[in-house]
Specification:
The protein is mainly β and about 200 residues long. Helix content is about 10%, strand content about 50%. An eleven-stranded antiparallel beta sheet has the order 1-4-5-7-8-9-10-11-2-3-6.
Length: about 200
């Protein structure tokens, strides 16, 4: 009987190892949250954040996962940082209390509450976005999620693109609506090596 139990335990060990969660700290040089918003009903204006930290964890066999993301709001750039003869540049205006209020709220965070899988990789994530001190649910869909090997470190590496939408007015950012659109499209390009 003991032999059978020992054999059963040995057979189960690889299965347990296969279903272990994998954690991937985000590579800050290959992780770029960006956004776009309608401007005066004419064009879509784009911006991005250059400083981001966080990680994602998932268990392929159990179909579970989690993600945490912290964005430095003062790292915002839209390609317009020189004010010239204007009172302020677009970047400075977006960092002001009219919009992201980066002095009072230097970070924006996203923490997952549920991860959905398609096959053995995540396809969507639901979570809570905290912006301007307000927390609201936001859903992100992975337009792309792939894994392979980092050719330099030889570590397992995963990355992709996650996209979601939210209304900035839900977070108290109401300045210039509707001239500047209320709906924000958030796009997160990310990569990370397995710990």
């Amino acid at each position: 009987m003991k032999t059978r139990l020992a054999l059963a335990a040995l057979l189960c060990t690889p299965m347990l190892a296969m279903s272990a969660p994998e954690t991937y700290p985000l590579d800050p040089t290959h992780t770029y949250p960006s956004f776009h918003v309608e401007h005066w009903g004419l064009s879509m204006m784009h911006g991005r954040f250059d400083k981001t930290s966080g990680k994602f964890t998932f268990d392929r066999a159990a179909k579970t996962g989690s993600t945490e993301l912290t964005i430095d709001t003062a790292s915002l750039t839209t390609g317009d940082s020189v004010k010239g003869n204007r009172p302020q540049s677009r970047d400075d205006h977006l960092k002001s209390a009219d919009f992201f209020n980066t002095k009072e709220f230097p970070t924006m965070t996203f923490k997952s509450t549920k991860v959905t899988f398609s096959g053995d990789l995540p396809s969507a994530v639901e979570g809570n976005l905290t912006l301007l001190g307000v927390t609201k649910p936001v859903s992100l869909t992975f337009e792309r999620f792939k894994c392979g090997q980092n050719p330099f470190s030889k570590k397992d590496r995963c990355g992709g693109n996650a996209v979601g939408k939210f209304k900035r007015s839900d977070f108290g950012m109401k300045y210039a609506i509707p001239a500047v659109g209320d709906e924000i499209t958030l796009n997160i390009e990310f990569e990370g090596d397995k710990e």
